[in-house]
């Protein structure tokens, strides 16, 4: 009888420990190896109708930072203003590696006084951000 009771006790101990989690496809002993989230790229443009890089537009210059943020203002990705078609005050940008699934996506360009332009995920993916100042 002693061996039988010991065998049952051992079996129950194993069934309620980490092996039960392993049999369900998870393990408390090893880190999760879930797939990385789907990501996408946003492209856009910034046009300044005025003297960019000086006066009231001193913060909008070639190489200026572009941030894409979520609804909580968490930065999801960063890009830079590059030369665009149509003159010295027209820029293009691309920001890659943005995670899908956010409620809103916002573009921040220039100083904090410029604010944020918001889009849904669908609009951010398909339309991008095309901004004009002045």
Q: Can you tell me about this structure?
A:
The chain is of the alpha+beta class. 19% of the residues lie in helices and 35% in strands. It contains three helices and eight strands. The chain has helices spanning 2-15, 18-23, 121-126, and strands at residues 39-48, 65-70, 75-80, 82-83, 90-99, 105-109, 117-119, 129-133. It has a four-stranded mixed β-sheet with strand order 4-5-1-8. The protein is globular and about 40 Å long. Mean pLDDT is 78; it is low at 1-34.
The largest sheet is: 4 strands, mixed
How many beta-strand runs?
A: 8
Fraction of residues in β-strands: 35-45%
In helices, the fraction of residues equals 10-25%
CA gyration radius, whole angstroms: 26 Å
What's the short version?
With 134 residues, the protein is an alpha+beta fold. The protein has three helices and eight strands, in the order H-H-E-E-E-E-E-E-E-H-E.
Give the topology, please.
Elements (H helix, E strand, L loop, with lengths): L1 H14 L2 H6 L15 E10 L16 E6 L4 E6 L1 E2 L6 E10 L5 E5 L7 E3 L1 H6 L2 E5 L1
Parallel strand pairs: 1-8
Antiparallel strand pairs: 1-5, 2-3, 2-6, 4-5, 6-7
Which keywords apply here?
disordered N terminus; 4-stranded antiparallel sheet; 134 residues; alpha+beta; globular; 4-stranded mixed sheet
